[in-house]
Write a structure and sequence with these properties.
Elements lengths: L1 H9 L2 H4 L17 H14 L6 E5 L9 H6 L2 E2 L3 E2 L1 E8 L15 E4 L11 E5 L1
Antiparallel strand pairs: 1-6, 2-3, 4-5, 4-6
C-alpha cells in the first residue's frame, strides 16, 4: 500500500500529461486543457505556410500512436475539406514563469509529420 502511494506521489507530470498545482495559479499548466489547446492552435496558425484553415489536433503521446500525417489525413471539415499535416508540436507541462529571466512554458516544434513514437502531442492540420 505504501509503495503504491509513494509511486503516485512521485509520478512525473509527463505520465499524467497534467501539471500539478493550483488550477488557477501561476504554477499550473495543462497541455491538454483549454490553455494548452489555445497555445497549440496559436502556434499551428503562426507556423502555417501560406493561408487557409488551421487546426491543432490533440494526439496521444505513445509509441503505438498514429503519425500526424495519418491523423490529419483522416480528418475533414465542412469549410476546409480534407486536411493534411504541416507540422507537429509537443507542449510540455512546465510551470508558468513568475519572475523575470526565468524559464516558463516549453514547446517543441517538429516539422516531421510521420513520427509514430511519443513525440508530438498536437498535430498541425490544414487544408
Amino acid at each position: 500500500m505504501l509503495v503504491i502511494a509513494a509511486a503516485l506521489v512521485f509520478a512525473p507530470a509527463a505520465m499524467s500529461q497534467v501539471a500539478r498545482g493550483d488550477e488557477g495559479g501561476l504554477d499550473a499548466f495543462a497541455p491538454f486543457g483549454k490553455q494548452g489547446q489555445i497555445l497549440a492552435q496559436a502556434t499551428c496558425t503562426a507556423i502555417r505556410p501560406g493561408t487557409g484553415f488551421t487546426f491543432a489536433v490533440k494526439r496521444f503521446c505513445d509509441r503505438r500512436s498514429n503519425s500526424c500525417a495519418r491523423i490529419c489525413g483522416r480528418l475533414s471539415e465542412r469549410q476546409a475539406g480534407y486536411l493534411s499535416c504541416f507540422g507537429a508540436l509537443h507542449i510540455y507541462a512546465n510551470p508558468f514563469f513568475s519572475e523575470e529571466e526565468t524559464l516558463g512554458l516549453k514547446t517543441l516544434l517538429q516539422t516531421d509529420c510521420n513520427v509514430t513514437a511519443c513525440g508530438p502531442n498536437y498535430c498541425c492540420c490544414g487544408d
